[in-house]
Amino acid sequence: MSLDLSIIIPAYNRVDLLRYTLESVARGIQNLQVEILVVDDGSEQPLAKQLTDFNHLQINFIRQENQGSIIARKTGLKQANGEYILFLDSDDLIHPDKLVSQISQMRNQEADVSYTDKAVTTLIGSYDSLVFQPHGTLPTVKDATEFYLKVQPMPHSPIYRRSYIQKHLENPLVPEHQIFDSVGDVWIYYNLALYPAKIIKVDGYYTIGTQHNEERFTQHWEKLGIASLALMSVFIKNCPKTEDTLKVREQVGECAFMSWRRLPTHFNQTFENMMLNIWINSPKTSCSRLGGRNFQRLAKVVGVENAARILRWIQRPNYSKIKTVSESELKELVNRLVTI
Less CB within 10 Å around the terminal CB: N or C of the chain? Predict the structure, then answer.
């Protein structure tokens, strides 16, 4: 029997949250033929022994030594057999109609990728008590570079054609490394951004983000920033400097510039310089893509970089007011960038 979909779930401990995820999958399968690949990334207790209440699902537990979420995703992808691929983290949920809606439209339109809008919920109480609230609408884009570098939907929004994603992640431009783990979804996006794809948007708030009290990467924005900077740095270093890659290199430069503008004042100087240098060394685009009207007016007088510095000084908070890690930890994190 051919499989419609492979759902790949990298997981490390967090069994209680993973139960919510698997319950949402159970409700979303409907009439599809689906395999679930739970890649147990070295959990303290094997997940297969803790989740026997989901034995009614077609789950393949793949246990490996702890190597991080990116390696776990690739482990699952190598063993996947479905026509399509969906990545879920161990605290992600899906709407009951997500799978059938996206797959049916992908088949009808022969698409490589589909995505949807987002809803949110708080993981507390029974699954039936959860309330899904719409949370923003994404633009409709068809260009792969724009989609992967600018739109960047939640990691469990896209469903991919397996032949497409396996081909382009087999030998990725940015190799696997644990420093990218906190932005593992963006690692996938960057490695796909160079390649044309037919991308469609499926209407509906079918991708469910969650709020809960367990530890997560988003609690420490500095760690996300370090991972993002490392990812952009390696991408720019490895990306061929050709006319075919001009657009993607321009947009990576724009992303770096906008990320630098959002940094707080009195942040780590090494980090700031590395982020700004990605933009300096990337092909330049229109000033209108780097800021609003006030920024553009100021840039005409003092230049793009100086305008950004002035507005950042006025608009952004002092780092001391929003820091989430110690000075020593931040220094250690920045030092890791040198080794990448």
Answer: N
